[in-house]
Amino acid sequence: MTVDAILPVFVALPLIVAAVTALNPAKKLNDALALLIPAINLGLGVWLYTYTASHGTIAHVIGLYQGGVGISFAADQFSAVMIVTTMIVALTANWFAIAAGETQARFYTPLTLVLITGVSGALLTADLFNFFVMIEVMLLPSYGLIAMTGTRNRLRSARSFVLVNLAASTLLVMGVGYLYGIAGAVNIAALRGAAAGNGPVTVAMGLVIIAIAAKAGVFPVHTWLPRTYPASSAAVMGLFSGLHTKVAVYMLFRIWVVIFDMDPRWNTLIIVIMVISMLIGGFAGLGEYTIRRVLAYQMVNGMPFILIMLAFTNAGADARYALAAGLIYTLHHMITVGALVLNSGAIEETYGTGTIARLSGLARRDPFTATVFAAGAFSIVGFPPFSGLFGKVTIVMAAASADDWRAWVVIATIIVASFGALLSMMRVWREVFWGRPMQQYPEALNVRWKFLLPSLALMVCSLLMFIFAGQMWDVSTSAVDSLLDVDAYTTAVLGTDPIGIPDLDSLQGGRN
């Protein structure tokens, strides 16, 4: 058995253990497995990164079918980095769920493990149809998690979540089906460069991208996210913030590099959409009334900071720098937003509310909680000494390298949107952490350490990402190098003698 056979383990292990926890009534064992499984996938992700750094991209076809046939998994340093970071967020979110008693619900743990199954599969699949399947594997447990408490507000938000994601999934599978009808394949490697000028293929991939963008919460299909995520529990929102939207980021990066071949004709459209999304996400949080609804718009604000880098992927070093900057910001955003969401969850668990108007004076009552929130706010805005500074500096530098109108527009928008994020964070700080001490709660009531530690752990990660910024940049550039090495990816996925691969030259008639 070759080493690539380990790739299905990332999917099979959490799925099998999910079945075990669904049948097992022992809560302590289930809680242990809820932490152990993401920890194992985290460790395997670190190993996968080091192995692919030395040996290049690896791939495995289930059943050992010939290249181009069967269910393909592939891994390079880019996918390995994403696996590691998603598992860090999943581990801390489950940690908080255990502390908050959410795992008392009989099926909470198996649902989160099925979600981890889908995330792992989506980050490793080399096939667009199987990506759709893994997205559905992610969504099915998510429907249950977001509605688990059964309150009217949560059920109402679950309905919106289901409707939006069903519509997006329908559009996704329609695009994949249309693509197969045109090109005769949905294998990512087999479609190398297929959308770079081919009209019908571009239309099919456009449907796929719109569906993925909707799941990522990008303008103009973003409004569902700040309405649904905050209505879930803090642990579930922490899971969703680091997993759902970032899986979409991963696939958009992969599609842009491999299938679109970084076609520069789409750069202006990307910039326009992402600039509007930045501004909406930066300022819309000023009108929200709970801490987590404000943070939900910081999720909307963060996505375009990442995806706008696709418009700066010119040939050569520019593409490498821009994609590495986007990846750095992705990792920062996953960690920082997760920390802020879990920190707000700690406040909600203690005081029974996350409504801004009902809270005040927490800086004196809970100085450690206030410190973690302030650190997360600094990181979101881009202040030192946290990962947000490095993330935004690299984004600005990548945009500046264009040395044309794009640079001016994007940098100006980054400054304005960051100012909006600063105002949102200052509003929460002023209303919740400053002000008079709350009289309706006894002075002895404080946020307990078991609620605070998960968010503190993530903020320590953010601090370490700032301290070891050079090493983080090396990791990101190496990961992007593997993403850009399309030859290695294609060879690993398809093998030396693939079958069922479309003749892309026959599609030339559709190119314009």
Shape call: globular
Give the strand content.
under 5%
Largest sheet: 2 strands, antiparallel
Low-confidence parts: 508-512
What is the average of the pLDDT values? 88
Helices and strands: which structural class? mainly alpha
Number of strands: 2
Physical arrangement of strands within the biggest beta sheet: 1-2
* Count of alpha/pi helices: 19
Spatial gap, N to C terminus: 46 Å
SSE order: HHEEHHHHHHHHHHHHHHHHH
Structural commentary:
InterPro entries: CPA3_Na-H_Antiporter_D (IPR050586), NADH_UbQ_OxRdtase (IPR003918), ND/Mrp_TM (IPR001750). Keywords: Cell membrane, Membrane, Transmembrane, Transmembrane helix. One of its GO terms (molecular function) is NADH dehydrogenase (ubiquinone) activity. Its main location: membrane. A two-stranded antiparallel sheet has the order 1-2. The chain is globular, with a radius of gyration of 22 Å. It has 512 residues and is mainly alpha-helical. The chain contains 19 helices and 2 strands.
Short description:
The protein is built from 19 helices and two strands.
Keywords:
single chain; 19 helices; 512 residues; mainly alpha
Topology:
Elements: H1 9-23, H2 27-55, E1 58-61, E2 72-75, H3 77-99, H4 108-124, H5 128-146, H6 152-183, H7 199-216, H8 224-228, H9 234-258, H10 267-284, H11 291-307, H12 317-351, H13 362-365, H14 367-381, H15 387-400, H16 405-433, H17 449-467, H18 469-484, H19 486-494
Antiparallel strand pairs: 1-2
